[in-house]
C-alpha cells in the first residue's frame, strides 16, 4: 500500500519533466521597452491664415470735429466766435485686443478734448486731442491716442470745402499712423425742419511700424451723406449719416477693402451757450477672421461700435449762434 503512492508520484514527475525542459530551452521574451507615446499632431484649420498685413483708412473727412450745432442749422461754417468741449467715447467690439475675445462696453473709454474757432465769417478751424481714460487690465496702450486738426471753408451758400489732418500711435506701441484728406461738401435746406448733406473727396493714410522694413500706405476715395431732422429754431435735432471709403492705390504690403460706416446722433441746443449731444456709430474695418484686413489702431482700426456723449461750451461774439439762427443771416446759410 505504501509503494503505490510513491510509484504514482514518480510517474507524474516523469510526465512533467519533458514539458519543463522544452520551456527552459525557449528564450525568455525581452521586456517591453519604456517608450513614451507620441503626442497627437496639432489640428490645423481648414484654411491657412494669410500672413499678417493691414488695411488702412481714416474716418470720412466730412465727419469733422467742428461745430456739432451745424447738424441742426443751415450754416456752411460756424458763426464768429469759438467754443470748447469734451466727449467720452465708449468702444465695444466682438473682437478683442490682447487676451480677451471681445471688448465690452466699459473696457475702453477715450476722452476727446476739442476746440473750434471761426476767425472770419467763412473760415472755421477746429482741433481735438484723444486721451485714453480706460483700457483693459491686460493691455498697456499709450495715454495719448491721437490728435486732429482741420479747416472748413464756406465757398458759397451751399458749398463748403473741408480739410483734416490726424495722427496717433498704433496698438502695442508698435509705431505711429498719420493721415489726411479733403472733401467737397454740398448741403441743401429744403425745409426749416429738414436738411441734407452729401460729400465726396479723397484721403490718404500711412503707417510707420517698428517691425517692418517698408512703411505701408493707402489712398481712398470717400463719399458720404447725412439726413438731418431738427426743430424750426434749431434747438433740438437728430441726424443719420453714412460714409463709404473705396481703396484706390496702396502699397504691396496691405490688402485694403471697401468700408462702410454708419452714425446716428442727436443734440440738445436750447441753452444759448451750451450743447449736449449723443451719437452712436458702427464702423467697418475688415473681417475678424482675416487679420490682413484690419488696422492696428485702437479707435477705428477694426469692426467696432461706439457711443459718444459730449458737451460744448460756446463763447460767441455779438453775432452769436442763437441770434444768428433766428436772424437768417444769408452769408452763412447753405440753403434758403
Write a brief structural summary.
The protein has helices at residues 3-25, 321-327, and strands at 81-93, 103-118, 123-134, 144-154, 159-169, 175-191, 194-209, 217-230, 236-250, 259-268, 274-283, 304-316.
Q: SSE string, helix = H, strand = E?
A: HEEEEEEEEEEEEH
* Terminal Cα span: 142 Å
Helix content: under 10%
**Regions with little confidence, pLDDT below 50 for 5+ residues:** 1-26, 32-63, 319-336
Mean model confidence by pLDDT: 75
CATH fold group? Porin
Strand content: over 45%
| Alpha plus pi helix count | 2
Q: What coarse outline follows from CA principal-axis ratios?
A: globular
Sheet with the most strands, sense and barrel status: 12 strands, antiparallel, barrel
- Count of domains: 1
Detailed description of the structure:
The protein has 336 residues and is mainly beta. The protein has a single domain (68-327), classed as Porin. It is built from two helices and twelve strands. Strands 1-2-3-4-5-6-7-8-9-10-11-12 form a twelve-stranded antiparallel β-barrel. A hairpin with a 2-residue loop joins β6 (175-191) and β7 (194-209). Residues 1-26, 32-63 and 319-336 have low confidence and may be disordered.
